[in-house]
């Protein structure tokens, strides 16, 4: 999402759409899900996320929009699909971001997948939920693709 913001701010042609798979959108870890779901997500925990944020941010404030896109003015972004699971620490990041995007007039689609963990998509071919999520992404891409605008490309971002 930060890439979309930077492109927009630098007046560079935006892609046709953006996709966030379990995106990390608040390096301040302010969402309630960082505490409420700490024992549900088998891949990431709050202490690790806080350490990653500290290392990534250095002296940059966590609410810098290019570090934590949920604090950005999202006006003018292309359509966005976000998929997040109910067992994820990052669950609330996705919800708050989607609310802000909708308020900014962004065509936002938020899919909340029951009992899914951080980036369950990696299990495509082994989990039907991963296959279905990827199918939804393909449908979203097809719906937003405009073949007569070659300057636009789909940007897929997998947040770790």
Structure description:
This protein is α/β, with parallel strands linked by helices. The protein has a single domain, classed as Alpha/Beta hydrolase fold, catalytic domain (Rossmann fold), CATH 3.40.50.1820. The chain is 34% helix and 14% strand. The two termini are 13 Å apart.
Widest sheet: strand order? 3-2-1-4
- Poorly predicted runs are 150-160
Kindly report how far apart the N and C termini lie: 13 Å
Output the number of helix runs: 5
Report the top-level CATH class.
Answer: Alpha Beta
In short:
The longest helix has 17 residues, at 128-144.
Write the layout of secondary structure elements.
Blueprint: H1 2-9, E1 17-21, H2 33-36, H3 46-57, E2 80-85, H4 91-103, E3 108-113, H5 128-144, E4 154-158
Parallel strand pairs: 1-2, 1-4, 2-3
What are the salient characteristics of this protein?
alpha/beta; Rossmann fold; 4-stranded parallel beta sheet; globular; disordered C terminus
């Amino acid at each position: 999402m930060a890439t979309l913001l930077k492109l927009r701010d630098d007046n560079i042609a935006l892609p046709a759409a953006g996709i966030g798979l379990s995106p990390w959108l608040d390096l301040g870890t302010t969402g309630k899900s960082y505490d409420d779901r700490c024992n549900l997500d088998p891949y990431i925990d709050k202490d690790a996320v806080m350490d990653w944020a500290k290392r990534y941010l250095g002296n940059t404030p966590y609410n810098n929009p290019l570090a934590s896109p949920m604090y950005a003015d999202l006006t003018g972004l292309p359509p966005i699909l976000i998929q997040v699971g109910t067992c994820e620490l990052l669950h609330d990041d996705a919800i708050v971001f989607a609310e802000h995007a909708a308020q900014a007039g962004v065509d936002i689609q938020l899919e909340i997948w029951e009992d899914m963990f951080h980036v369950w998509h990696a299990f495509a071919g082994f989990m039907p939920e991963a296959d279905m999520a990827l199918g939804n992404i393909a449908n979203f891409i097809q719906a937003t693709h405009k073949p007569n605008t070659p300057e636009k490309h789909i940007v897929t971002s997998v947040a770790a």
